[in-house]
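Problem 3 from the worked examples.
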Amino acid sequence: MSKSSIPKGTRDFGPKEMVKRNYIFDAIRFVFQKYGYLPIETPAMEKTETLLGKYGDEGDRLIFKILKRGASLEKDVEKIRNGEKATYAEEALRYDLTVPFARYVVQNQNDISFPFKRHQIQPVWRADRPQKGRYREFYQCDVDVIGSNSLLNEVELVQIMDEVFGKLNISTKIKLNNRKILAGITEIIGESDRMIDITVALDKFDKVGQDGVIKELNEKGISSEAIAKLGPIFDFTGTNESKLEKLEALIGNTEAGKKGIEEIKSILEKLSTFNFEFSAVEIDITLARGLNYYTGAIFEVVCNEFPSSICGGGRYDDLTGVFGLKDVSGVGVSFGADRIYDVMEDQNLFPQNIEKTLDVLFVNFGEKEAGYCLGLLAQLRANEISSELYPDSAKMKKQMKYANEKGARKVVMIGETEMAENKLTVKDMETGEQSKLTIEQLIHSCVG
C-alpha cells in the first residue's frame, strides 16, 4: 500500500497553525470592515473563458484547468483565444479573486450600489513550481472598491495596508508606481506596442536584477537600442520628490507619463497628512505588476526584515468591460495570508500564548464526578469561557498531559471532598499554584 500524501505546493494545517492563521484573518477582516468593505464569496471554479486572457501568457499557463475525460487542453485554449467557447475544459480553478469579483459585479450590477466596496478572503490556485514562500494553493485577502475613479480610494487602500500591518506588528515598505508611467517609458524608448513584454520582464527586477531583466528583454526581441534607453530607470534612487523630478525630465512630455506622474503626486500629497508608524511609502519605477488588467496606480508591500512580497494590487479601469459592463473603474489590493504567516513565524511576531485557546479543563475522576462537572461546564460556557471535561476517567498523568497539549490555562479537579464543600480545586498551569475556589470565583478569575 502506497504512503498517503498531499500534492506538492499544498499543506495541511493543524490546530496550532490554524489558531495563528485565524489571528491573521481576524486582524485583516477587522480592518476591512472598519473601512466599510462588505464580504462576498465566489465559487472555487469559474468558466475557463472567464479567466483566460486576463493575466497574460504567463498567467494563462498557471491556471488549473478542469478537464473532461479525453480532453485536449491545447485545442480549448486556442478556441477561447479565438472567441469560441471551451469544449473540453469548461471550468478552471480561480487564479485570483479580482477577475471573479469583476464577473460578480457585472452579473449582479442591478442588485449592488456603486461605488461598491467589498472584501473577500478565500483560497486561489496556481499551477506554479512549488518553492519556499510560493504555493500552488494559498489564501488571498482582497479589498476592492469599484465604480469610482477617485484617487481617494488609493489613499484609503494605503491606510488599510498600513493599519493591517500595524495590527500584525510587521514593519513594511509600500512600493508605489503607475502603469501610465510605464506606458510613458515604453513610448520614449520606441516600444509602445511591446508594453506587456517589457512590464512582465521589469516585474522580475527584484528577483533577477538588471542583468536578468535585460536578458529576458533580449530573448523577447526588444531592440538593444530600446534596452539601452531603459538604463536610467534601474537606478532611480533618492526621495520620492527627487524621483518625480527625474520622471518629469524623462517622460513628462508623453501624455501617459504626465498623467501617471500627476496621479502619484496627488496620492502622495493626500498621504502626507497621515502618520504611518509601520509603513513607508516609496516610489519604485521598476514595479510593474505583470497582470494585464492594471491601468493606473500599482502597489506592492514588502517586509523590511524578510525578503518577501506580502501584499499587492492596483487600479483597473475596465476589467468589467470584458464581461459586458463598460467604463467601470476599480482599485484594490490583495494580502497574501500564507506569506504573512511565514513572515510572522520567522520574526516571532505572533502573541505569546496564542496557542492557549482552552481556558479550563475538568479532570474526570469517574462517572459521578463527571456528572457533577457538567453543570459547572455549562456555567463557564455561558460566560464565554472555553472549557471541556476530559471524556474518560483515565490516569491523572494522561489527563494532565492532555491539558498541557491543549494549552489549558487552568485545570479543575473535583472529587468527593470538593462536591461536599461545593468548592473546586483549581490548578493554575502557568504558575503551578493550586487553590480552592467557588464556581463564581473561577468565572471571575477567567474573565477578570
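Problem 4, a separate protein:
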Amino acid sequence: MQESQLSSAQICLEYTPAFGGSASAVRDYALALESRVIAFTSTEAPDRPDGWSKIPVWDVPARKDFLGQAYAWPGSAKSLQEARSILQNSKLIALHLLYRYHVQWGAGVARDFDIPFWVIPHGGLDPHVFTYRSLQKRLWMKSYGLRIMKQAAAVVFATEGERRKASPYLDGCTTQVVRLPIDHIDTTGRDDIRQKIRSQLQIPATDRVLIWLGRLHPMKRIFETIQAVGVANNASVHMLIIGPDEAISGNDCVRFSDQRQIKNVHVLGPIYGLEKYDYFMASDGFISLSHRENYNYALAEALACGLPVILSPGNDLSVDLSNQEHEMGWMLKSFDEHEAVEAIMRFASVPRSVLLDMGKAGQNWARLNLVRERFVSRVQELANETIRKRDSKSK
C-alpha cells in the first residue's frame, strides 16, 4: 500500500470476538489499509482479540444508560473530540454498520473535513432486519441513512446477494462488492484430528456430523436447526453447536433438545482461534439456516476446511456458490422446515465420496476467491481510486 497507508480510519461499534463477523470485517479492513480504528464501545477496557495487536484503536465509551446501549451515544465529550482530531488528517473513512450514532457522527466529520467515506452495512439492509424494531430503523434511514449512503464514495457489500437484497435503498448510491477474506487453513492432518475430536465426543467414526457455529441468537435460527435435525430422525447424524451465549444460551439448546427427545446434539460453547478448525475437520458438513447472513465467516471457514454445506436463502454467499459448475452442498430455496429436513436426510444418506467431492469443490472455490491477498489488493485498489477521485475534484 502506498497512497493511503496509515491515512484511513475505520469507525465501528464493538470489536470483541463475541460481536461476530462485523468485528472480524473491521479488523480485515483495518489491516488491509493499515488503518486506525475508532470504536464506540460499551465494554469497559475491552480485550484486544487475535489479529488486533497491530491496529491502533481509540475507544469512545458509550453512555451506560439505555441510550448508550441501544444507540451507542458517547458518554464523554472529551473522547469524542479527541476522536475527531484523530480523523482530521485521514484521506478515507469507512463507516461500519448502520442505525447507530457513530455512523451519522462519522459522516458529519467526513463532511466537515472534506474526507471521502465508505458505508459498509454488514447486512443492515437485508429485508429481515426490518422485521424487528422496524419503526426505529425506518426513521433513522429517512432522517440520516439514505442521505449518508448517497453522499458516500461507495456503499460496500460483502456479496452480490447482499447488494441485491439492499437494492430498494440504493437509488443514487455508488456500490461495490468486496468478498471478505479468510486465512489459509491447513487440513493435511484432518484424519488424525477427526479421530481425536470424535473420540473426545464419543461419536462413532462412521456417523455423520453437522457443525453449526455462530452467536446463539434467534436470527441464527438455532432452535429451528435442532428441530430439523430431530425431524430428520437419523440416529447416525450428530450436530455440534459452537458459539457464545447471547439472547439464547447453550443450556437453552440442551433443554430444547431434551424436551423433544432429539439425540446426538453436542453443545460445546464458544471456541475461538485455531482450535475451532479441529471441530470443522472432525465434521462431515456445515449447516446454517439463518434468517440473515450477509457473509458468514464460519461458512467461509467451513468451505476452506472442505465441508459441504446446507444453507438457507438467508445466507447471501449461497448466491455465489449456487452459480458454480460443481455442487458444494444444498442451497435451500426457502425457510420451509421440510426442505431443510430433506437436505439433512440427503446429507445422511449419500456416499461419503459424494460429500468429499462437494467439500473439495467448496475448498477450491474458497482458495480461489477468499484468499487474503485478493481481498487486500481489491480494498487497496478501491481505496486509492476513492482518494484519487477526491483529490482530482479538489484541484
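Solution to problem 4. The chain has a mean pLDDT of 93. The longest helix spans residues 372-394.
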